# Entry
Amino acid sequence: MKVEFYKHSLTEEDIAAASEAMRGTFLSSGPKVKEFEEAFAKYLNVKHVLAVNSCTSALHLSMVASHKNWKVSRFNEVITTPLTFAATINAILYAGLKPILVDVNPRTGNIDLNQVESAINGKTHAILPVHLYGNMCNMQLLSKMCSNDGIYLIEDAAHCVEGQVDFTYPGQLGDFACFSFYATKNLTCGEGGAIATNNENSYDYLKLLRTHGMSKSAADRFGKSYAHWDITELGYKYNMTDFQAALLLGQLPRLEAQLARRKEIYLQYISGLAPLGITFTYIPENVRSAHHLFTIHVDPARRDDIIVKLNEAGISVTVNYRPIHTLSYYKEVLPYNVGDFPHAERIGASTISLPFYPLLRSEEVQYVIDTLKRII
Ligand SMILES: *Cc1c(COP(=O)(O)O)cnc(C)c1O
# Structure
């Protein structure tokens, strides 16, 4: 048997909707983008969603928009987790800000809030929690820490379209929540992203930054006689195309059903693997997981060998994540050493992400379980 790591769930209807958009006037951002933004804002119960071309762009724009008024470099620290994808850290670096890493909670893998609190000082500009694997950080506590000190709260919600904590979605308590619609994410258009925000002023500014700081967008200009536009800011080119938005729109009504299927797979994995002594990420009672990734923890001494054996059995897996401070580039540019974040390092050394998506069949899940049983 061959079990892919990921297969998307796009339907013929989704593809027809994208084709339909391509037959229209707007190949770039137009009415479908607007429609998607409104529909996704409704899903998340936030005021505004701004569609962009990746989560990396979303994070970068959030950094720039929030730092606008801090021309002084005193406030240049962004507290975040080492157990994340490079994009989280890169966005901070793109904006000329300084990533301050703190260790994770050993059970959840999410940033440790006690350590966040200790890391806050007079230079803290923002806190950037990552809702790892689709399990939201405690936003209530984080937003309290931030509002006391005028610190921005920017969520990396790349894994967390459907996740909630205490019945709140990403973007409801944070200043900005950044989503990814990359090929393997729960909601996808190949490459894409979005920022959710309840902040009116920031929304207008983000919109400006999304397309070069132009005072009129292409859609605003369409169908009207020519009028001069101006550039009022150094902006970026981070907008989404209409056919991508059309692809995303069709998936929104299926999100809950797909989440329910992933939850079933999650439970099948847990009940099959727990007897083997394999352990899992802890999901707190008040968290509704988006179940984006399914990760297991095995003996670090055997982890890489288990991956090889799974691959030999036709099962594709991956690792989320080897901590940032252990990768070559960040070793060079960040002031951290291996050993600094023991919990993140232990997870990074013991974790394997198994195939996990709605189209995965129960027999395939069982095959993964049986293969792990044989190997371990
Ligand atoms: C996928 C991912 C990103 C980046 O998303 P892109 O849309 O590819 O830019 C950022 N953070 C995390 C945690 C991710 O998994």
Remarks:
- The two ends are 19 Å apart (CA to CA).
- Residues 54-56, 84-85, 87-88, 130, 156, 158-159, 180, 182, 193 surround pyridoxal-5'-phosphate (CB under 6 Å).
